[in-house]
Amino acid sequence: MTTYYDDRSVRVTSAAIRVDGRTYPLADFTEVWHRRSARSWRVLGRRGALGVALVSPVVFAVIGIAVGLSLDTSLTVTIAIVGGSVLVGLAVGPLADLLFEHLDRSYARGSRTMELWVRWRGRPVRLLATDDALRFGQIYRALQRAVEQRQPVTPR
Question: Membrane-spanning residues where (predicted)?
Answer without folding.
Answer: 49-71, 77-100
